[in-house]
Amino acid sequence: MKKILFAAISMLAIVSCTTDGTQEEIKKEPYKITVKFADDSADGETAYLTSYDSGDTIAQEVVKGKEVVFQDSVAGSFMARLVVDGKLGFIVEAGEITINWEDGKATGTALNDKLNAIDAELEKADGDEAEAAIFQKAYKDNKDNGIGPWAFNYYLMYNNFTVAQIEDMLKELPAEWKDLKRVGKALKDAEAKENTAEGKKFTDFANAKGEKLSDYAGNGKYTLVDFWASWCGPCRKEVANIKQLYAKYNGKMNFVGIAVWDEDEATAKAMEELKIEWPVVMNGKNWTEPTDIYGIPGIPHIMLIDPEGKIVKRGLGGEELIKTVDDIFK
């Protein structure tokens, strides 16, 4: 799990309008973020403080020796990421925040301490269901601070909610949460999943070379489609299961990998390392169109399409993947 930074607040005042037309003064207060590195190997590099939700750069500073310091002001708290030869998430809020780059912890303020406690719970959790419950409690307990939207985003990722279910949850949450980029993405993904649900015909897509999913799917044979990336550990682990099926059913069914969120060179290297024999469709750095179309928030994601092009099953993996395919050819 990635932790989060919250920006702090300066003593400047900003003005907002209330529902009755009056003006309410919202104070900003100062923060200071000191990032400490184990050595001076990052000396001279630029460190970026970015929005966790949008990815926009909020501030940037040059690392000097073994540390870099950010100082500004903020109203309330928000999720952020520190980017410098890697990423680290934490909370920006008023006060003095110290980040130990090596252990990935931000300390010194109440919300960062709370976030570290949530992280500790997640490390002890047994399985996805337990982790989802932790995120659910976290967003409900933190509707008034930056932990809430972050936890809500992860809760959505752990569940296969419909658009209607997400919209119902949003009715009970701060109105501004619906405007968050990640919540908007979750709604789009849910809509995409409904449009490409099991029982529906697959949606085609093509890369820049004109290679299409329909080159493999809907041509009279079952087709196994693996959405993956070279850097994804669980994706690489799932290759062993696909290999097992490929050895038994190649010729009887089609196999195709879809390399997403990756670079072609890295994909080709991984194919060689993993000895992948089936075709893999790739399209340069950070290809997102396939996962956007199918509303896939995380990989690996393995899909089975029948000979006529109907989606039989989505989200397959492990023993369930092997059993599902074996049952077809019994």
Mass-distribution shape? globular
Distance between the termini: 41 Å
**Structural class of the secondary elements?**
alpha/beta
SSE arrangement, N to C: EEEEEEEEEEEHHHHHEHEHEHEEH
- The tally of beta strands, per DSSP, is 16
Average of pLDDT: 91
Sequence of strands across the biggest β-sheet = 1-9-8-5-6
Overall helicity: 25-40%
Radius of gyration: 23 Å
How large a portion of the residues is in β-strands, by DSSP E? 25-35%
Unreliable runs: 1-19
Largest sheet: 5 strands, mixed
Number of helices: 9
Descriptive overview:
The chain is of the alpha/beta class. It has helices spanning 110-124, 128-141, 147-157, 163-170, 181-195, 233-249, 264-274, 289-294, 318-328, and strands spanning 4-7, 13-17, 23-27, 29-36, 46-51, 57-62, 67-74, 78-83, 87-93, 95-100, 105-107, 223-228, 254-259, 280-281, 301-305, 311-316. It is globular and about 65 Å long. The two termini are 41 Å apart. The model is unreliable at 1-19 (pLDDT under 50).
